[in-house]
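Sat 14:20. Reprocessing the chain from the morning session after the first attempt stalled halfway. Input below, unchanged.
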Amino acid sequence: MARGRPSKKSHIVIAACDLFTLQGYQATSIDQVVAAAGVSKPTVYSNFPTKLALWEEVLEHIVSQATPSMTEKRLAFAEQPHSALAAWLAIWESWSSLPENLAVYRIFLGEQHKMNDQLLAKFDLFETLLMSALQAWQGHFKVSSQVFVQMEALSRQYILMPRLLNKPIDNEAFMTAQLNWLLTL
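Finished this time. Tokens:
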């Protein structure tokens, strides 16, 4: 491999990531990955014996790309003055606005029955990125565990779920009022 050029394997992973993000798991075929990556079908299959194995590598790629961003979010609380609510919403906004993150949730929900323990563990690692930023927020703003759990549930319902369904965030004022109220407890 020439210096500075990505390997064919990483090129395939990036092409597959784009396709899975745009089309989902079921709608993406290996033939589409072959065409998008500009490689041969044997090259794809020599690196990834199954589409699920390819998805596993794509998930690792997404986690590696998201890690610096979420680490940045954790550090932002100490460096910039935010209200607790503004910081909370900033985490959820940055997390749920990334199409590849939404693709991970959609694929997990649709293909969970096919996933082995190793792939499920990688999804847990993906979720850990969000949770570590939220837990850093909790520690910084000294929010109780009970309030934290309720805020997380509201945020998943009112922010993450609508985005997964390609719908606008509904009742944003209600959600904000509820989160503010929880912060007073």
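The CA atoms of residues 20 and 27 lie 8 Å apart.
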